[in-house]
Amino acid sequence: MKQFFDLKKILPDLIVIAGFILISFVYFAPAVMDGRIIAQNDSLAAIGQGQEQRDYMERHEGKRTRWNLSMFGGMPSYQMSPTYDSSKPQDAVKKAYSLFLPNYVGLVFIMLLGFYILMRALKASPLLSALGAVIWAFSSYFFILIAAGHIWKFVTLAYIPPTIAGMIYIYRKKYLLGGLIFMLFVAFQISSNHPQMTYYFLFVMLFIAIAFLAEAIQKKELPGFLKSTAALLAAGIIGAAANGSSLYHTYEYSKETMRGKSELAHHGEENKTGNGLERDYITTWSYGVGETWTLLVPNTKGGASVPLAENEKAMSKARPEYRQLYQQIGQYWGEQPGTSGPVYVGAFVLALFVLGLFIVKGPL
Q1: Residue 291 to residue 293: CA distance in whole angstroms
Q2: How many folded domains does the chain comprise?
Q3: Are residues 139 and 87 in the same domain?
């Protein structure tokens, strides 16, 4: 009888996954062992904003309200925390994917595992794939998101690398494996309820598809490329359809908000309507051009928006009589209203990237 799978072949992958679990626990030790939680600004705000829904459920024997007055003067509760019966199987699969690990530990684990899946799709060895996953997962921005409580955004970003892996498998004609991976993680991404990140990711997908198209034309394999593209689209549609309830209601609601066409107008402008948002509003929290250097040098714009008095190195040379003044001066002086810290990737990683441009061959 033929063995269903070769344990010896997948043993290195299992060892790496066990290592990821250990790394994720160690990073948050001892806090996670003591049951402590992070005081996340957005998460704390969400607790208060969700109190109205919890009170309603208590009064009406578990029934959910679909409107909440505590957000922006009133908005549908399904935009705050989408809950649909149709998504319950998917939620169970997501918990299994995170191996039912505790909250913060599970977040770091899925970030590590997702990039590991991508690296393996790129035919890297388990060791090299594990190294790439650690470098990816421990870039500063992801931990800034955890600290701020931007969990939906974090989780969506964690599902993007394995989605790319599914795409690569499909274009390498592993249709069943690639289609299942792509379908699954497209569904996971959309259910994470941060369409903005998925929208940005679509551009990455487009560039990858163009790269494979160029290779197909060069090798005169255009029919194979078209077949792979059709498989990719089919898997993507199925993944999106799994979130049909959420997508449809978001689409309907968007038409009545300031992000779509709205009939609301300022006092004295009753006859005016607008479409979309002002550019300045959209880019309020965007990196400035010069601030992009923080990818290489972390404190190019001063670091986090905290008082200068909290910088031990600066205070070691400061005059103590001006301590109160330093408490009023912020370290950050970039283009955003404020920040929890710089998006730092690392000089080592960027050096590897530049090196890879010359060494690594192929469409990617």
Answers
A1: 5
A2: 3
A3: yes
